[in-house]
Write a structure and sequence with these properties.
This protein is mostly helical. Helix content is 64%, strand content 4%. It has two domains: 1-143, no CATH class; 153-444 and 460-587, MFS general substrate transporter like domains (Growth Hormone, Chain: A). The chain has helices spanning 17-26, 87-91, 158-181, 186-193, 197-225, 227-246, 251-279, 282-314, 316-335, 342-349, 358-369, 371-378, 380-410, 415-420, 423-453, 467-482, 493-521, 525-570, 573-587; strands at 5-6, 10-11, 36-37, 43-44, 66-68, 74-77, 106-108, 126-128, 131-133. It has a three-stranded antiparallel β-sheet, with no helix packed on it. The longest helix has 46 residues, at 525-570. It is globular, with a radius of gyration of 26 Å.
């Protein structure tokens, strides 16, 4: 057994060079075989063998720790215990074992990087000879790369980061573009396959429903096997089923293929923000997220615009083929993107971890698979953000139906002229990007300086600077559209201005909350984002099924005013996070607590 340290200061002793590397990685490079700690009245020990007991009631073994901050130094906090029967599961992974006695905190005079991330824990204990010894297992910190590691994606050059960001985000565009480009072919599909409008419209609904199912699998999978393998696997089937959709012989086969396109393509729209978090520092993360948000929301507005001309000139088959070509080319490019997930890179360094253990992998994946659902229903931060963004996402898809009613049925636009009205949405998204890159970034840096000046690290709420304005602008734009669009005596530019303002508000809200979740959940951000993506996709897939009927039944004024009223009810959410976000994170079991 490795010697304990009773109130003395000496270097940590490690089992092997590989363990030294892993330990340094698990603590962000801050604790390694050269570090030392002072532990008055306590013991710092390496793990005993499976057959040994805890040497005394004053010794508590750690497999990991939870980082929090209430004063200048970061401190190790305890939150759970491990039984003797469960300890062997932790012995297979070299980790830090430290001690805490009588509720005192073991302080490290270091400043942990925000990339420190936690996972779930279980609470048990065991007794030996009627003397209970608590072997504490704080939340699991995945091994990740130190900031000065040459393989750390955060150390990439700006040019390399931009290229990777561009490739990944354009891949997202191919998916969101195809979700609405299909709509332009609805009349032709109805005629060719002899189906009703409701059946043909399922091609949109099932694709977006695939957006909901895919993240539940691909989000956790990327945290186990890494981003790159998931991207390559999903991209292969995403492009394959896109090609199959272009040559579908029947309506049922087309609908099945469309669902599978959404399912496998969801690996992009869900995991790309997590990849951005992997290779960016806090101060630059918002800038790289802007491009993602533009592609995620710009695609649905670009789809009807481009597909209207394709459908008019060469028909629905080529409309579907363009989607297939776009998805295939970008999936090939994404396959060339290097791994960005720090823990995965660390695992590949360890030769022992390279040995496949299928049973262990499947067991871990089964336990992690439910994480997005758990986050959605047990993490108030994720729940509230998911509800807010889901409603806005549903309004966006419902808005597409409103455009058809207003510009085709009421104002008598031709299909190609109708497609041009989506330019207003695109311009709104572009304007939002400009604001986010200039005003938004300045607001974030100012908020970060205020946090540092007050003695705390930069808070995730600093991301919400423009979201406050977007929350107010969103219902205003909906009411403006509701009470101008159906009146032909009002120039068509006015409802287009309302579209522009709504698009702008959507993007600044979305681009505030996505990095907010990344900053809050760090290395398990993919699961947190998967929870939100699943809920957004479910709402987005349902809205097209009833929104057209809603607009015909309530009229443009009534239906859009109803949506505006819902947006009003949700508008206070960014302000609630501003006031209570820190307290909510402190109470969370999975969020990184930054105080």
């Amino acid at each position: 057994m490795w010697p304990c340290m009773q109130g003395e200061r000496r270097p940590l002793q490690l089992h092997s060079p590989n363990e030294a590397d892993t330990l340094a990685a698990e603590t962000g490079g801050l604790i390694d075989n050269r570090s030392s700690l002072t532990l008055p009245g306590a013991s710092l020990c390496q793990t005993p063998s499976v057959d040994e007991q805890c040497p005394s009631t004053n010794t508590i073994y750690y497999t990991n720790y939870k980082a929090s901050r209430s004063a200048a130094p970061w401190s190790i906090q305890l939150s759970a215990t491990m039984s003797r029967s469960t300890k062997p599961a932790y012995d297979s992974e070299p980790t830090l074992y430290a001690a805490k006695v009588k509720g005192e905190t073991l302080d490290l005079a270091v400043d942990l990087d925000l990339e420190a991330q936690l996972s779930d824990v279980t609470q048990t204990s065991f007794s030996q000879n009627q003397d209970t010894t608590s072997c504490v297992v704080p939340p699991r910190l995945p091994a990740t790369l130190p900031l000065d590691d040459p393989e750390n994606p955060k150390s990439w050059s700006t040019a390399r980061k931009f290229v990777v960001d561009l490739v990944l985000c354009t891949w997202v565009l191919s998916l969101t573009f195809s979700s609405t480009a299909y709509v332009a072919s609805l009349p032709a599909l109805m005629q060719h396959f002899h189906v009703s409008q409701e059946v043909a419209l399922l091609g949109v609904t099932l694709t977006v429903f695939g957006f909901a199912a895919g993240p539940i699998v691909f989000g956790p999978a990327s945290e186990i096997w890494g981003r790159a393998p998931v991207y390559r696997f999903a991209g292969l089937f995403y492009s394959g089923f896109s090609i199959a959709s272009a040559f579908a012989p029947s309506a049922p086969s087309l609908l099945v293929f469309r669902f599978l396109v959404g399912f496998f393509g969801a690996a992009s729209i869900n995991n790309v923000p997590a990849s951005i978090g992997d290779f960016t520092h806090l101060e630059e993360r918002g800038l790289y997220t802007i491009l993602y948000a533009l592609m995620a929301f710009g695609g649905p507005s670009l789809g009807p615009l481009v597909s209207a001309f394709i459908q008019h000139d060469v028909g629905f088959r080529w409309n579907l083929r363009v989607m297939a070509i776009l998805s295939t080319v970008l999936s090939i490019l994404v396959a060339l993107v290097p791994e960005t997930h720090g823990p995965t890179i660390m695992k590949r360094r360890n030769k022992e971890s390279a040995k496949p253990d299928v049973y262990k992998i499947l067991t871990v994946f089964q336990s992690v698979l439910a994480r997005p659902i758990i986050y959605l229903f047990t993490e108030p931060l994720v729940t509230i953000v998911s509800i807010y963004l889901s409603v806005l996402y549903g309004i966006l898809y419902g808005f597409f139906e409103a455009f058809g009613v207003v510009f085709l049925e009421i104002r008598g636009f031709t299909p190609t002229n109708y497609g041009l009205t989506y330019i207003a949405l695109g311009l709104g998204f572009l304007a939002a990007c400009v604001l986010l890159a200039t005003v938004g970034q300045t607001m974030y840096l100012n908020a970060a300086r205020r946090d540092v000046a007050s003695g705390v690290r930069t808070q995730p709420e600093a991301r919400l600077g423009l979201a406050f304005y977007g929350a107010v602008l969103s219902p205003i734009s909906l009411f403006l559209f509701a009470w101008t669009a159906p009146y032909v005596r009002v120039h068509w530019i006015v409802p287009c201005i309302a579209e522009f303002l709504f698009a702008l508000s959507m993007l600044v809200i979305f681009t505030g909350f996505v990095p907010f979740l990344i900053d809050t959940y760090q290395l398990t951000a993919a699961s947190a984002l998967a929870a939100g993506m699943a809920s957004r996709a479910l709402v987005g897939s349902v809205f097209p099924l009833f929104s057209l009927q809603m607009y015909h039944a309530l009229g443009v004024q009534g239906a859009t005013s109803l949506l505006g009223g819902v947006a009003c009810l949700l508008a206070p959410i960014p302000f609630v996070f501003k006031l209570y976000g820190r307290e909510m994170r402190a109470r969370s079991r999975r969020a990184v607590v930054v105080e």
